[in-house]
Amino acid sequence: MKNALITGITGQDGSYLAELLLEKGYNVYGIMRRKSVVDYGNVDHIKDKINFIYADMTDPISLISAMKISQADEVYNLAAQSFVATSWDTPIGTAEIDALGVTNMLEAIRTVKPSCRFYQASTSEMFGKVQEIPQKETTPFYPRSPYGVAKLYGHWITKNYRESYGLYACSGILFNHESERRGKEFVTRKITDAVARIKHGVQDHLELGNMDAKRDWGHSKDYVRAMWLMLQQEEADDYVIATNETRTVREFVETAFAQAGIEIAWEGSGVDEIGKDKATGKVLVKVNPKFFRPAEVELLIGDPKKAETTLGWKREIAFPELVERMVKNDMALVEEEIKIQNI
């Protein structure tokens, strides 16, 4: 029976990964930061099956302790300040967690159990101002946010420890992956939550930033399977995990509203663009410049050929089903909220 240690276990990816590893018979350990109120987040339903360790990515001693307690055979580093917009407000904090935190974890592994296999959650945001379409493992990086820059450090330090110390350390360059468990501050969940609230009459409209930004969207459940597969190979390597499809934020909005039986008709352009309910003429979507990024990433689309060929990985949840799952989930949550309020 293998031991696995997951940082960021209460997040979207951490919860799906914990479920996968438990199904495979692992002893699962999860790192949590101490808070005044314990918050198990997305793993609340399986918290009794997880061994929680209080530690922090910015505290090397606590990570060494976590390695000693868990005796992990595999470490999945999913902990991050992962909201891109926030990285401009907290660039130092983002760097301490997303960049130096990776080094802290690698040093803990090297100190306690060098045979442990390490997975680093890299990101398509490292490509930023894309130098090649589609983006693959050999595409030059050009990050456009403090988040992307910090993640790029984490990516390269992982490769460096692999080449310097012979650690089994690899990075998954994951393109945008969403799910019903995504935080509401992220644009996809913000959209599906708003669709549910608008449909039930508890929200008037939705405000977004750059409607033309293009992203390669997959489902988190598919992507955590790729993480596990990376650590089962004979040799460590880095892989792009993506769908090789790209859609605008506008298309995501249209698909989400369609799931609620609402067809969106667009008028205007730029900051004056609006989306109306085609049946009623009511304005449901507006552009708000405050949501624009200081430096925009216009297009992301990944080539997963290497992962498909070497790992045997294939996504199972296509884009329409991803959006359908998210809208249905938020519909149910909003209905429950209304029911409670009416009691």
Walk me through this protein's architecture:
Keywords: Lyase, NADP. Its EC number is 4.2.1.47. Its cofactor is NADP(+). The chain is an alpha/beta fold. 40% of the residues lie in helices and 17% in strands. It contains ten helices and 15 strands. The protein has a seven-stranded parallel beta sheet, with helices on both faces. Helix 2 crosses helix 4 and helix 6 packs across helix 10. The model has no long low-confidence stretch (mean pLDDT 96).
Keywords:
343 residues, alpha/beta, 7-stranded parallel sheet, 4-stranded mixed sheet, 17% strand
Helix content: 25-40%
Mean pLDDT, rounded to whole units?
A: 96
End-to-end separation in angstroms reads 48 Å
Task: List the secondary-structure elements in sequence, H or E.
Answer: EHEEHEHHEHEEHEEEHEEHEEEHH
What best-fitting shape do the alpha-carbon axes yield? globular
Question: Could you give a quick summary of the protein structure above?
Answer:
The protein is built from ten helices and 15 strands.
Strand and helix map with partners:
Blueprint: E1 3-7, H1 12-23, E2 27-32, E3 51-54, H2 60-70, E4 74-77, H3 84-89, H4 91-112, E5 117-123, H5 146-165, E6 168-174, E7 177-178, H6 187-199, E8 206-208, E9 214-215, E10 218-219, H7 220-230, E11 239-241, E12 247-248, H8 249-259, E13 264-267, E14 274-277, E15 283-287, H9 305-311, H10 319-341
Parallel strand pairs: 1-2, 1-4, 2-3, 4-5, 5-6, 6-11, 7-10, 8-15
Antiparallel strand pairs: 9-12, 13-14, 14-15
Helix pairs in contact: 1-7, 2-4, 4-5, 6-8, 6-10, 8-10
